[in-house]
Amino acid sequence: MGIIEQLLRINKNQKLWYYLPFSLFFLGIMFLNWISLRYSAVSTNEIIKMNITKYGKNVNFLITIGPLVFMLIFLIGWVLFVHKQSLLSLTTSRSTVDWKRFLFSFGLWSFVIIGFFIYGYLKDPQDYVLSFKLGPFIVFFIFAVILIPLQTSFEEYFMRGYLMQGIGLATRSRAVALISTSIIFGLMHLANPEVEKVGATIMIYYIGTGLFLGIITLMDDGLELALGFHAANNLVGVLLVTSDWTAFQTNSIFTNINSDSGISPWEYIVQVGIVLPLIIFVFAKKYGWKNWKHQLFGRVK
């Protein structure tokens, strides 16, 4: 039984309109935030730099990530008390959460991230400086290890869990749920300073990554792989390297000082078109995925 159908088994009287208040509330906040920044005289990156100057990098990190942590708590409460749905049914179609899946995905993508970083450092060592400072890094490390998994968990529970289930049940189409949540996931990042710096081509990466996360969720009938991947992507990446034009400008080990983005559209295409499909291939072989047509494009029973 798939993760979308799991909800019907748990609660056959589930009311679809229950999905609207929370979804519209969060997406409305994201849209208003983008509008305010789009027409503001001050860019997102300038706001980040002002906060860093005023509060320091670690407090700015808390300001940046804190709202999504609270949204996770809000979402869990909404699911438990309004939908009367268990968190397990939002996480996986299995009888228990498979933490081995989470750890495998986390470890695999961490290995890839570190490999890409080493390649970039050896290729262009002049773009990186060692910015490690023990005291600030330890504080940041504690904050990051606790809060980033909560932040990424909210994005996965909302996008690949809550919203995918809601859209799937409303349209009875796995394909519509997959494609729509992937696009929404990409649009969620429109206000990021990376979009200002790199341009609209970075949406290839955001939407492509959303599609990848949706595929592995539907094929595996659970969020465990997506949760592990997303946590590794944000946590390991931000601990390793930061720059002065990203959403997370932190007390990382290295700082990328390249005044340009240093990333061409082709690198996004390679990651989305080659690297992520290879990760899907590894998962598919390890977990014996079958019936791809139904899992990704079939009707919700």
Automatic annotation (TrEMBL):
Keyword field: Hydrolase, Membrane, Protease, Transmembrane, Transmembrane helix
Domain CAAX prenyl protease 2/Lysostaphin resistance protein A-like residue range list: 137-236
TM regions (residue ranges): 16-39, 59-81, 102-122, 134-154, 175-192, 198-218, 225-248, 268-284
Coiled-coil blocks: none
Gene Ontology molecular function: endopeptidase activity
Gene Ontology biological-process entries: CAAX-box protein maturation; proteolysis
InterPro entries: Rce1/LyrA-like_dom (IPR003675)
Protein name according to UniProt: CAAX protease
Protein species of origin: Myroides marinus
